[in-house]
Amino acid sequence: MKRIICGCLALLCAATIMAQAPASKGKAAPKAKVRKWTQMAPKLKDDFFKTDEALRIGDNVLLYQYETGGWPKNTNMQLPLDEAAKAKLRANRKGINESTIDNKATTTEITYLCRLYNATGQQRYADGALRGMDYLFRAQYANGGWPQFYPRPKGYYTHITFNDDAMTNVLKVMRDVAKGKQPYAFMPDSVKAKAQAALDKGISCILKTQVVQDGRPTVWCAQYDEHTLQPAAARAYELVSLSGSESEDIVLFLMSLSKPSAEIVECVENAVAWFRKSEIHGLTFEFFTDKDGKRDYRMVACPEGKDCPPLWARFYTIEGNRPFFSDRDGVPRYDISEIGRERRTGYGWYNSDALEVYERYESWAKKYGRARDKQ
């Protein structure tokens, strides 16, 4: 037990020391190497939440919470705050345009505060988590979707957002709150009932937005117009498409539901069929250093005798199901070598995530899917 706590503290302290290390005379300070908050927080052991360090971080999390009840993204909330930084956060609590579910924001903080409340019984942490839940309830559209940011009034931020698993991360919290699972079991029955209603609406939105291609339901676009429920673009290189990345997490979420309806089962079956027909075979990554000394990669044929796993593209055309790539000019291209290094290496264009779908589907199908009917 002590080793676990010390290990977590050591990681946090090391990140803090590196981030704040002063420069030696005549030498540049070492660059900070800080563990990303949204990756670190879910991995913390239960015993950690009984430490003073956990309380310090919890108070930081409350300071970062906006009056909306939501939190900003891309913020390492575990790092120490001096008094000036704390005062600035208090003054900025009305910064409503930064509340978001993007990049695991808000759901990570709600879960951390719940775990901290369970370990300490200190009410301020429960209150913060409940304010976060209220933010999620208010942010949900009547059609069941969630925007990337709320309450931002315009831009692609208002689209229903599956991109980077934003909406599915919220639905996972709603599912567990509704069931009274830990660490959310302490929440009032009224909140659990709201979570169930939000979950039901969110699932309905997923079913309504499954893209039909050549008469058959397939998978999902990364974002949708919140009024028409039609696929929508976001950033210049995020065009209307079928998303081989975001759809994977949607299917895994649907397969996590107990007692799925016939509509959910059919939705999963169609999505898995799309993954099977959209596999890319015979390609693998080849990394190299370019003439400017920068890391880059190219896609090459799988070496003879090597068993390369199937890949899926991040984006496929809705018409024709063709993998494509795009740079900041917003022009679709059909070979990754045709976009610049900055976007090629700064975005996930290929993945093998659907292999996890296949693995989960094997047991799920025996219990709920078409395979059950053949037994």
Summarize the structure.
43% of the residues lie in helices and 10% in strands. The protein is α+β, with helices and mostly antiparallel strands.
Description:
It is a single chain. This protein has helices at residues 2-20, 37-40, 52-64, 83-91, 107-120, 123-139, 166-179, 189-209, 246-255, 262-277, 341-345, 354-367, 370-373; strands at residues 160-161, 212-213, 216-217, 223-224, 242-243, 283-289, 295-301, 312-313, 315-316, 323-326, 332-333, 350-351. The chain is of the alpha+beta class and 375 residues long. The strands form five sheets. A four-stranded antiparallel sheet has the order 5-9-10-11, with no helix packed on it. α7 packs antiparallel against α8 and α9 (246-255) runs antiparallel to α10. The longest helix has 21 residues, at 189-209. The N and C termini lie far apart (47 Å). The model is unreliable at 1-32 (pLDDT under 50).
SSE blueprint:
Elements: H1 2-20, H2 37-40, H3 52-64, H4 83-91, H5 107-120, H6 123-139, E1 160-161, H7 166-179, H8 189-209, E2 212-213, E3 216-217, E4 223-224, E5 242-243, H9 246-255, H10 262-277, E6 283-289, E7 295-301, E8 312-313, E9 315-316, E10 323-326, E11 332-333, H11 341-345, E12 350-351, H12 354-367, H13 370-373
Antiparallel strand pairs: 1-4, 2-3, 5-9, 6-7, 8-12, 9-10, 10-11
Helix pairs in contact: 3-5, 5-6, 6-8, 7-8, 9-10, 9-12
